[in-house]
């Protein structure tokens, strides 16, 4: 979802300062009304902008934000800001579905950001998942899955070489794995394996997901095969368990 409309810093919102209702409570109710009406979505302006808009100090804004969070209307993500809470993302682990399909079905805005790429000899576990002989080479891409502007997934994917040589460049242009695979002629694929587990994140993983290291994350290992049953992708995804729920189709 897009950010809420910019707030004016030259025309502060008029609050009833002698109404008997605390100023922070009035700010909370004003923002809550807009959120419930669908007028404010995505990331809220920062404390400084809100304080200027309402003509109050940042502490007052912080009280209002905490009250909104207590009501479940917003979520404060450490280091990233305050976000209007949307419904959980239902990621359907179907035979031919990917996260992009689940987001489109739910009319959520998702973007995958390529953060790294390299070609190298496959480690033994990767080669096993892709059914490759020892010393085979693969291309690895690392991505961040963003939904409504926040990171909900950290992913690493492996593709066999030379079949998918140059895939990272194609992915950078198209932004979706299924579109990149289609560029290489793979339009019919299916999920062969999904292995799901829960774990505590590393400090680096928690920082990427904007969460505490004490909050569990979901780990999903996936193998996709083409129409001939040949493995084309092995992926490892780590999801924010507070934002994503996994739906396993029979």
UniProtKB/TrEMBL annotation:
Transmembrane segments: none annotated. The gene is phnF. SUPFAM superfamilies: Chorismate lyase-like (SSF64288), Winged helix' DNA-binding domain (SSF46785). Keywords: DNA-binding, Transcription, Transcription regulation. PROSITE patterns: HTH_GNTR. One of its GO terms (molecular function) is DNA-binding transcription factor activity. Residues 17-87 form the HTH gntR-type domain. This is Phosphonate metabolism transcriptional regulator PhnF.
């Amino acid at each position: 979802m897009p950010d809420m409309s910019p707030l004016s810093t030259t025309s502060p919102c008029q609050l009833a300062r002698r109404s008997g209702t605390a100023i922070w409570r009035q700010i909370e109710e004003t923002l809550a009304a807009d959120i419930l009406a669908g007028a404010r979505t995505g990331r809220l302006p920062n404390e400084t902008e809100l304080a200027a808009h309402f003509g109050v100090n940042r502490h007052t804004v912080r009280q209002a934000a905490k009250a909104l969070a207590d009501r479940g209307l917003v979520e404060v993500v450490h280091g990233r800001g305050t976000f209007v809470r949307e419904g959980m993302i239902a990621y359907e682990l179907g035979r031919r579905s990917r996260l992009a399909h689940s987001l489109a079905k739910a009319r959520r805005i998702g973007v995958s950001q390529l953060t790294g790429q390299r070609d190298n000899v496959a480690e033994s576990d990767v080669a096993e998942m892709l059914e490759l002989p020892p010393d085979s080479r693969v291309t690895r891409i690392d991505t961040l899955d963003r939904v409504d502007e926040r990171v909900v997934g950290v992913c690493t994917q492996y593709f066999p070489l030379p079949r998918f040589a140059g895939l990272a460049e194609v992915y950078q242009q198209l932004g979706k794995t299924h579109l990149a695979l289609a560029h290489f002629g793979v339009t019919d694929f299916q999920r062969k394996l999904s292995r799901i587990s829960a774990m505590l994140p590393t400090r680096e993983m928690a920082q990427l997901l904007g969460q505490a290291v004490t909050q569990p994350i979901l780990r999903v290992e996936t193998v996709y095969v083409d129409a001939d049953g040949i493995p084309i992708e092995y992926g490892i995804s780590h999801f924010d368990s507070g934002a994503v729920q996994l739906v396993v189709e029979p």
